Amino acid sequence: NLKPEQGITSEGSLNYKNTFKHIFLKINFAAFNRKINNWIFWLPVANGNPSPENVQQVWSRGTETNWQIVYTKNYFSSGINLNTSYILSTVTKDALPNSSSLDRQLIYTPRYLASGSFFIKAKNISLSYFQNYTGYRFTSSDNLNWLNPFTVAVLKLNSEIKLEKMNVNYFFSVNNLFNAQYAVIAARPMPMRNYEFGITF
């Protein structure tokens, strides 16, 4: 019985990129504005399984930035990447009278997100470090309950072998490097430090 989403979206961006000898620089700034009727939202219910529901009207707006700088010389390269976003997603219309969700942030939608990465590569071997930050996420429509912000780090070692007709990529990563205790959904804690190994062809 879900109704289709309908609305108006506008978005704009400014981009700058340039190369200075061995250094590549890229900067991006974007802003968006969305007003969506019948916004489809997955709402946690009593049995623990989320269920899709229509929200009368949601106004989502925000900004996003991306900064990237890469140094390359011969077989060596190194770079830094930084992403940030600020998002307000609020309910502007609700079918329920005196609704506590009006003008409140949607649950599980963080206002602040940030991620950064650093890599160093020599020939076909690279080492990368990733750091992600997720801000407060409300767990009730009246915004009186929330999950604390968390930051998670990943360290990844990667090696690529080029064969005649394919590339073979080996990687080993340490996820949640600093053993952060966090939950993406209330009462569902995420794994502590864990390890991952993979091969892609």
What's a quick, concise take on this entry?
By secondary structure, the protein is mostly beta strands.
Describe the structure.
This protein is mainly β. The protein has strands at 6-20, 23-43, 51-73, 76-93, 112-122, 125-134, 137-138, 146-147, 150-162, 167-175, 183-185, 188-189, 194-200. The strands form 3 sheets. Strands 1-2-3-4-5-6-9-10-13 form a 9-stranded antiparallel beta sheet, with no helix packed on it. It has a two-stranded antiparallel ribbon with strand order 7-8. Strands 11-12 form a two-stranded antiparallel ribbon.
Described by strand count, sense and barrel closure, the largest sheet is: 9 strands, antiparallel
**Measured on Cα atoms, how large is the radius of gyration?**
21 Å
Strand numbers in spatial order across the main sheet = 1-2-3-4-5-6-9-10-13
Strand portion: over 45%
Uncertain residue ranges: none
Q: State the end-to-end distance.
A: 43 Å
Write down the overall mean pLDDT: 93
- Fraction in helix: under 10%
Written as H for each helix and E for each strand, in order along the chain, the element string is: EEEEEEEEEEEEE
Strand-helix topology:
Elements (H helix, E strand, L loop, with lengths): L5 E15 L2 E21 L7 E23 L2 E18 L18 E11 L2 E10 L2 E2 L7 E2 L2 E13 L4 E9 L7 E3 L2 E2 L4 E7 L1
Antiparallel strand pairs: 1-2, 2-3, 3-4, 4-5, 5-6, 6-9, 7-8, 9-10, 10-13, 11-12
Search tags:
single chain; 201 residues; mainly beta; 9-stranded antiparallel beta sheet; 0% helix
